[in-house]
Amino acid sequence: xxxxxQKDGTWTFDGDGVRIVPGSDKGVSLLRRTLGxxxxxxxxxxxVAYEPGRKAGRLRLRLRDGADxxxxxxxxxxxxxxxxxxxxVETKAAAxxxxxxxxxxxxxxxxxxxxxxxxxxxxxxxxxPLTVGAGDGTASFDGRVVRLEWTWHTDEVxxxxxxxxxxxxxxxxxxxxxxxxxxxxxxRFVSSPNAPRLPAGRDxxxxxxxxxxxxxxxxxxxxxxxxxxxxxHAPEPVAAAEPKALGPAxxxxxxxxxxxxxxxxxxxxxxxxxxxxxxxxxAKQAVLKRL
Length: 291
Fold this sequence. Notes:
By secondary structure, the protein is of the alpha+beta class. It has helices at about 30-35, 70-75, 95-110, 155-160, 215-225, 255-270, 275-290; strands spanning about 1-5, 10-15, 15-20, 40, 45-50, 55-65, 85-90, 130-135, 135-140, 145-150, 165, 175, 185-190, 205-210. It is about 25% helix and about 25% strand.
């Protein structure tokens, strides 16, 4: 087992995965404190690295593409302070960090864990229900419905339509974009790939983010929704196979007696287990249509 304890948090590796507990230091980001403890299974890891620095280093976990809904929805746009898979390491603890890296890498090699993308989420996302207030609105999610309510400074286009409710099954995508410089960010719920994209400040299905402390929490809420939607790398569903062509054998002139004999033959095949219920029904209907 390997463990590293810092003001930023505690990481523990037991051979099966990494347990991440955020620190209680006031410098720990609101997102990480709200997310709480995270258990990352070994199979979700693509790598680990320690980056030394003059004042402090950084320990980083790299997860496989598609393993974590938070990373999926943020798309590499989380800053280091909010990233739960980055740990600030004091220079005096550099040797412990390097030992931690060696232990995780050895386990990945021994278990032959692939580094490629996965077709299902391997982390569950944040606990529900979840409510976050940031930017020009408050978003909540209970596992079934997203609800958006507006603040006093929201554009009248949005307040005029009142609070919004969006059922999970009606969602096509969820977009989270942080504010950058003078450009506002947003959390947007997309119901159709062809839906018009209004500015977030005027879109009744979007919360405009202005770059304040609570903005990253909207990424948490987005991940809680995304983890319950179809995975982006999931294989295409296989179409149900057509029943076997077990209709009536060619009968000259569709003689009724011959078709009745065919029905008896099909019944015997079904009773003996040669035909499944679906195949028998399909074949029987084909014969009956010719009577």
